[in-house]
């Protein structure tokens, strides 16, 4: 059944409610219920039943359950790093060893550098950058909102520019499918590599966030954000402060992800499961932290589990947001939002405009659904079919889909990467969305212009 303009109205209603009410969970439930009302013939009772049955059905999908458990256990890791004194030891160590790092600009550059270096998985990138840099940012009066923006702006963009990860596996799979179906011809790896220089949104985003750090380039609500007070370390440390209690667990977690991808891919890291890999990575990290912290007498057995349970509890609101964000993505998929948007493009449109329009439609789709991966899966077949029929440059179209997916995901309040970035930085989720949006729109405008120029040159 076709729902037309209603398929766009539902996600827009959810996003507007989230921005106005500043209550993401209530807004998501409202949007989900409105969508289910449409899908169930405007029968309120059926929509009500579908809402609560749908929540249970989400847990039947393994990757969703693993993602939610991953988020819970991340909270435990953050709490353990804090209560063990590892975070404060790390800040003290940096303060004594590197004066340039112990400054507002140095703290932000630390987060930026971590975000660039760790390109294995976007959630891990945001988490590590936020966790490591947050205490140093607090100490140097850098707001949590600015830190969340840095974390969010280096996670998905760098993962898409250096696709030696699950992102690359997904994109290669979509391109291979189009080749096997004889929609396009060529080598998938060569086409993906050729698309990287045209991934304009990711490139512009990394440059813009660097300008924010180096030149204090602040626009919109970010100018008015206030830093959280830093209370320092109340734990007495024997001997000199060391960064190891902070860095070793994070190193274990980062290394466990490619190991998990290798194992789940049966020897091929590009075929591994991202959700399974990060799920087991946090479990391995928690086991390592128990042996390290309890064995090293940084925490007692009792205090370890006290911190563990407190960390799980603090993540429940975040997990609820993730759960309902995934739910509304499913509802929007059932409404056919992406297909309707693609249908609007199928008229008499100049080939010169198509790369820019594909970028914008992918951006709207990702913004509405809150998922870049889902957008890639929907828009890549559409984009490649349009490219083949209209004689467009294939790498440029691939890049337009990738850039659009990341742009919309970056700007969306219901995106899982946006949620995880605000969680890692320890700031209010809606405030993160509100302060980041002007920068995302700036990068999106530059990218749209670049795709327009590229379409004119290459078509």
TrEMBL record:
Localization of this protein: Cell membrane
GO cellular component assignments: plasma membrane
Record lineage: Bacteria, Pseudomonadati, Campylobacterota, Epsilonproteobacteria, Campylobacterales
Record's protein name: Sodium:proton antiporter
Membrane topology classification: Multi-pass membrane protein
Keyword Hydrolase: no
Transmembrane stretches, start-end: 12-38, 44-60, 67-87, 107-133, 154-179, 199-217, 246-265, 277-295, 307-332, 352-370, 382-407, 439-458
Domain Na+/H+ antiporter NhaC-like C-terminal: 159-456
Annotated keywords: Cell membrane, Membrane, Transmembrane, Transmembrane helix
Gene source species: Sulfurovum indicum
Primary residence: membrane
Pfam family of the protein (one): Na_H_antiporter
């Amino acid at each position: 059944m076709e729902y037309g303009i209603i398929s766009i109205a539902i996600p827009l209603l959810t996003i507007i409610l989230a921005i106005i009410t500043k209550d993401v969970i209530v807004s998501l439930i409202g949007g989900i219920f409105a969508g289910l009302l449409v899908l169930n013939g405007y029968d309120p009772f059926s929509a009500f039943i579908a809402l609560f049955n749908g929540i249970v059905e989400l847990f039947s999908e393994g990757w969703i359950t693993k993602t939610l458990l991953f988020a819970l256990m991340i909270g435990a890791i953050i709490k353990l790093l804090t209560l063990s004194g590892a975070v404060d030891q790390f800040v003290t160590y940096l303060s004594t060893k590197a004066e340039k790092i112990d400054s507002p600009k140095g703290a932000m550059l630390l987060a930026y550098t971590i975000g660039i270096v760790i390109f294995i998985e976007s959630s891990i990138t945001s988490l590590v950058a936020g966790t490591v840099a947050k205490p140093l940012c607090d100490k140097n009066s850098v707001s949590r909102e600015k830190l969340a923006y840095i974390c969010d702006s280096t996670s998905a963009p760098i993962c898409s520019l250096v696709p030696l990860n699950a992102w690359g596996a997904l994109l290669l799979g979509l391109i291979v499918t189009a080749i096997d179906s004889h929609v396009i011809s060529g080598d998938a790896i060569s086409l993906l590599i050729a698309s990287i220089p045209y991934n304009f949104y990711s490139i512009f985003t990394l440059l813009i966030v660097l300008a924010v750090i180096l030149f204090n380039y602040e626009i919109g609500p970010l100018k008015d954000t206030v830093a959280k007070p830093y209370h320092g370390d109340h734990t007495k440390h024997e001997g000199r402060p060391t960064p190891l209690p902070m860095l070793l667990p994070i190193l274990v977690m980062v290394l466990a992800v490619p190991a998990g991808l290798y194992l789940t891919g049966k020897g091929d890291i590009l075929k591994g499961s991202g959700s399974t890999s990060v799920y087991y990575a946090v479990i391995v990290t928690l086991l390592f932290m128990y042996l390290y912290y309890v064995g090293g007498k940084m925490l007692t057995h009792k205090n370890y589990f006290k911190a563990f349970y407190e960390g799980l509890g603090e993540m429940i609101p975040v997990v609820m947001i993730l759960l309902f964000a995934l739910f509304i993505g499913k509802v929007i998929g059932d409404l056919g939002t992406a297909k309707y948007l693609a249908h609007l493009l199928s008229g008499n449109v100049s080939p010169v405009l198509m790369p820019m329009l594909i970028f914008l439609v992918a951006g709207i789709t990702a913004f509405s659904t809150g998922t870049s991966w889902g957008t890639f899966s929907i828009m890549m077949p559409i984009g490649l079919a349009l490219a083949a029929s209209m004689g467009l440059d294939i790498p440029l179209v691939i890049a337009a889909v990738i850039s659009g997916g990341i742009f919309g995901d970056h700007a969306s309040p219901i995106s899982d990467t946006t949620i995880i970035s605000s969680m890692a930085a320890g700031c209010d989720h809606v405030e993160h969305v509100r302060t980041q949006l002007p920068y995302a729109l700036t990068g999106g405008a530059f990218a749209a212009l670049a795709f327009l120029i590229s379409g004119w040159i290459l078509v």
